[in-house]
Amino acid sequence: MKNLVEIYDTTLRDGTQGEGVSFSVADKLRVAEKLDAFGVHYVEGGWPGSNPKDIEFFKEAAKRKWKNTQIAAFGSTRRKKVAAKDDQQVKLLIDAKTPVVTIFGKTWLLHVQEVLRTTPKENIAMIADTIAFLKKNKRKVIYDAEHALDGYKDDPEYALATWKAAEEAGADFVVLCDTNGGTLPSEVAEITAVAKKELSCQVGIHTHNDIGLAVANAVSAVEQGATQVQGTINGYGERTGNCNLTCAIPNISLKMGRRSITKSRIKKLRDLSRFVDEVANIIPDRRQPWVGGTAFAHKGGMHVNAVQKVAHSFEHADPTVVGNKRRILVSDLAGRSNIVMKAQEMGIRINNDTPELKTILTKVKEQEHLGYDYEGAEGSLALLIRKSLGRVDPAFDLEAYHVSMRGDALEHVCEATVKVRVGDKTAHTVADGDGPVNALDQALRNALRGFYPVLEMVRLTDYKVRILNSSRASGTAAKTRVLIESTDCKERWYTVGVNENIIEASLQALLDSIEFRLLKK
Q1: How many CA atoms lie within 13 A of 228 on its CB side?
Q2: DSSP, residue by residue, 249-261
Q3: How many CB atoms lie within 10 A of CB 14?
């Protein structure tokens, strides 16, 4: 298709070479299906010659119908002095039964002579013979020219000879690989322009992020006529990673206006990013461009005031185009607009003329000065705003509590006792826990669930502690901030507490957590 920039995803192969990234066969199939639904043109499933897991993936992939994507098997050129038809690794590429085969070969004479330890002539023969054999077996062939950019800078004539050998043997694409990830966009542009001029087949780009320019280099190549971009979801990959497709895709489609992934599918980009992180068991990077949690977050009062009036005055794009959303942060840097927009975001009716607005802003700044942090504790912030507006009737009162620990060399027990009042009734309960906070959490919910059955589903799912002023006091006497994550199996919310006593700080966050859930009801 004319002017189409195809997206080639190598998350399942190159991405898994990144530290801490691993997928089972079932994981790889799930990710491939998600990429297919998103509209990625190629999904590289792995290297069938390298491990049994990838062989199993290709067996399972062959049983499935793929709507938008073509599955690619990855491998290398034949070994030196061995015919392609007799090379076991090349045979496995055929056995994978994929419509596309991607192979890499050497461009840089340094690698030809010092790594492969063969002659420049034999290296070219290895490239040509392998591609011709794959084409004879009716495969679409993508040739990844490894170290293409470094090789061209070292010896342009030889580098070009290797690319032409691939083209003449029938390669559908010659992909220029910045394997070491150290090339500048201006160099990528110059070398891609040469490849486009000298080759009649299509040209692609494969970049690594060692100097932080992988996406910029991919964009630079597309500007010079490259029609395939290889990369990984969330930038997974060797060393510092590959070209991040969650950046490259919207840049190509939305910023450059090129035909690639359709706009309707790009709206699911953030979901795709989170899905792959979840399958890989990796915490999402909140600072990812486009899809990260802070990508469209506004904190400075002047910025928020402008966004409230004209959103694109401080946003390069509408966050919804990639399935993200605008977030307003409230802190000691907040202005009136921060409070108004954040309250409206949380469903609280308030505007710039609300009389209590100044009081709310002052209270937030005072609390932040004391150590509270409402950026990550929207449950506590909602309670503060509603209480300042007089829109909260306390669901309960904590009249007393006690926490104790006892134990010996083998085990210990934490016990919490609480007394709560709901209207004219009281409840007095005791609970054990894995620690003092867990015991308090159990005791509070045990006391209140008789009045509020909805608390049966509430669970504390994360607990974070930060020492705020350890330089001014000994570590055990310093002020402590506690952030708690809670869930009712449907939604998650976050609350905060601050005190010199870690138990008191934890109790504040726990009480806010329960009160916020009851407020939602």
Answers
A1: 22
A2: HHIIIIIS--BSS
A3: 26
The predicted structure's pLDDT at residue 470: 58
Q: What is the DSSP letter of 208?
A: B
CA–CA distance, 154 with 148 (Å, rounded to integer): 10
Q: How far is CA 512 from CA 238, 274, 289, 380, 452, in A?
A: 43, 28, 32, 6, 15
Closest CA relative to residue 228, chosen from 341, 140, 349: 140
Q: Which of 201, 204, 102, 200 is nearest to 149 (CA)?
A: 204
Q: How far is CA 340 from the centre of its chain?
A: 30
Backbone angles phi, psi at 468, to 5 degrees: -90, -35
In which element (H, E) is residue 27 found? Answer: helix 25-38
Four-CA torsion 63, 64, 70, 75, nearest 10 degrees = -40
> Helix, strand or coil for residue 182?
coil
Q: How far apart are CA 5 and CA 1, in angstroms?
A: 9
Classify residue 15 as exposed, middle or buried by CB count within 10 Å of its CB (0-12, 13-18, 19+): buried
8 Å CB contact between 48 and 54: yes
Given its phi and psi angles, is residue 446 left (phi above 0), alpha (psi -120 to 50 degrees) or beta? alpha
68-95 confidence digits (pLDDT tens): 999 999 999 999 999 999 999 999 999 9
Residue with tokens 């930060």: 466
Return the residue matching tokens 């990013």. 273
Rg, C-alpha atoms of the chain = 29
Q: Which CATH architecture has domain 6-261?
A: Alpha-Beta Barrel (3.20)
Element (H, E) at 328: strand 327-328
Q: Is the pLDDT of residue 521 over 70?
A: no
Q: What is the mean pLDDT of residues 307-311?
A: 74
Give 373-387 pLDDT, tens digit per residue.
Answer: 887 788 898 888 888
* Angle between the N-to-C axes of helices 378-388 and 502-520, in degrees from 0 to 180, rounded to the nearest 10: 70
Apex 224 CA angle, 5 and 291, nearest 5: 50
Q: Which residue is listed with tokens 């904590």?
A: 398
Locate CATH 3.30.160.270 in the chain. Answer: 397-520
Residue 23's Cβ-count burial label (10 Å; 0-12, 13-18, 19+) is buried
Reading the block at residue 437, the tokens are 């906070």
- Residues written for the chain: 521
Mean pLDDT (the chain, rounded): 91
CB-CB contact of 272 with 40 (8 Å): no
Q: What does the pLDDT average to over 390-396?
A: 85
Which superfamily, per CATH, for 397-520? Alpha-isopropylmalate synthase LeuA, regulatory domain (3.30.160.270)
Residues of the chain with CATH 3.20.20.70: 6-261
Amino acid at 170: G
